[in-house]
Amino acid sequence: MTLFDVKMRYMRDDLEYNYQDSMVVTMKGHIPSSFGNVTALESLDLSSNKLVGEIPMQSTGLKFLEVLNLSQNQLVGPIPHGNQFNTFSNDSYGGNLGLCGFPLPKRSGKDKAHEPPKSVFHGE
């Protein structure tokens, strides 16, 4: 059984349900790049864990993902671009002060390279 072969028992031991289209995960550390392999996933809630590091670029492989909640962690770096990641709002990333890039107002280093230099004259 792999990390994503999750079977959950609900109320009675003789009934078993597979939750394949949504996940609520409790974990610490880095987001595994293998999350990108769960291609049929529609909803992923990793909020309020103790996640650190960057969001793996492989996450853009989640082409059916409609809901993403990575809020209230300690994630840093640029938010991946492409596929469903272009559709998520600021709320998906709230509380991760080290994240940058679309849709957040804080730009990534690549975005800053395209901005005009700030004036050295303050108030003149």
Overview features:
9 strands, 3% helix, disordered N terminus, four-stranded parallel sheet, mainly beta, 1 helix, 124 residues, 23% strand
Structure description:
The protein has 124 residues and is mainly beta. It has one helix at 109-112; strands at residues 7-9, 16-18, 22-24, 28-29, 43-45, 50-53, 67-69, 74-78, 98-100. Strands 4-6-8-9 form a four-stranded parallel β-sheet, with no helix packed on it. The protein has a three-stranded parallel β-sheet with strand order 3-5-7, with no helix packed on it. The model is unreliable at 1-19 and 111-119 (pLDDT under 50).
Quick take:
By secondary structure, this protein is mainly beta. Helices cover 3% and strands 23% of the residues. Mean pLDDT is 76; it is low at 1-19 and 111-119.
Shape field:
globular
Uncertain residue segments: 1-19, 111-119
Query: How can the largest sheet be summarized?
Result: 4 strands, parallel
pLDDT averaged over residues: 76
- Strand runs, count: 9
* Oligomeric assembly: single chain
Helices and strands: which structural class?
mainly beta
Strand fraction equals: 15-25%
Order of helices and strands: EEEEEEEEEH
Radius of gyration: 18 Å
